[in-house]
Amino acid sequence: xxxxxxxxxxxxxxxxxxxxxxxxxxxxxxxxxxxxxxxxxxxxxxxxxxxxxxxxxxxxxxxxxxxxxxxxxxxxxxxxxxxxxxxxxxxxxxxxxxxxxxxxxxxxxxxxxxxx
Length: 116
Hints:
Structural class: mainly alpha
């Protein structure tokens, strides 16, 4: 399935900018999948920015010239504020999808049923 999905995107399939992609994979394919998405129109940063916009994450770009200072300040704030850690924790939980595997398999079944 990992190869099928990555080939679909490699063949020009575009991820809509308002979509959030969560790709679950086994240990054997983690490095390959990470590398693939690093070439995929920077969508990981787009996803991160969406989480940040909703108050569920703090985003720091590695390439920013003062990333180390920004990271230190963010960590200091988090370490010093239980309220801030709890706020982030509560916000990220709103993105949880406990039935993601079942829902994904149902969707794939519907797609295969439509095309086959």
